[in-house]
Inverse folding.
């Protein structure tokens, strides 16, 4: 919304500083208002707009900053901003498509895990005594399930934080450059998943 409004103001002939001031006044997000005000301060001191944006990488990524820098040199900023708006809309559509494509498989996986945990924790223990009496006759798969059931029921207070920490660690890792690269490679190489992402990226 910021980029779209800024492009519109610049297209109508408003210069950068008044345009940014207008957007700061219109912003309903206090944190983003602070960012805009810092950008206004840098621009007022004579720094290039792109340099002011680069100080806020959590809001404006390197692609955004570099395109704005190129537009400053070429004198076609509002056109570049319009392209950035179009890119953002396409990215949102792509994210929505990916979420829709993966939501059902993710639901099935989570549901299956939930069923397995329920069976191990609530159903399997009812047969524990019977299984112990014929333990020597049980297949290795059943013995492993008995062990998993005991571990889940005995150490659940350790397993839950461990899983939460592992998931949090993976989320953090996949937000880092190396993690993002690994995730992108996985999207295009994993069997059954790669076809979905290739079709999405090609549309």
């Amino acid at each position: 919304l910021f980029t779209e409004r800024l492009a519109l103001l610049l297209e109508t002939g408003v210069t950068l500083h008044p345009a940014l001031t207008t957007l700061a006044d219109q912003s309903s997000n206090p944190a983003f208002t602070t960012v805009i005000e810092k950008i206004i301060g840098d621009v007022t001191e004579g720094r290039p707009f792109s340099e002011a944006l680069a100080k806020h990488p959590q809001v404006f990524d390197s692609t955004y900053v570099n395109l704005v820098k190129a537009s400053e040199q070429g004198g076609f900023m509002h056109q570049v901003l319009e392209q950035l708006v179009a890119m953002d809309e396409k990215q949102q559509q792509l994210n929505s498509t990916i979420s829709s494509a993966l939501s059902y498989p993710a639901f099935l996986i989570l549901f299956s895990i939930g069923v397995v945990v329920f069976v191990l924790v609530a159903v399997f223990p009812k047969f524990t005594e019977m299984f112990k009496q014929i333990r020597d006759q049980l297949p290795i798969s059943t013995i492993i399930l008995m062990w998993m059931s005991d571990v889940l029921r005995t150490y659940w207070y350790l397993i839950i934080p461990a899983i939460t920490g592992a998931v949090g660690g993976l989320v953090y890792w996949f937000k880092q450059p190396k993690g993002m690269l690994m995730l992108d490679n996985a999207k295009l190489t994993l069997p059954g998943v790669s076809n979905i992402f290739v079709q999405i990226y090609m549309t």
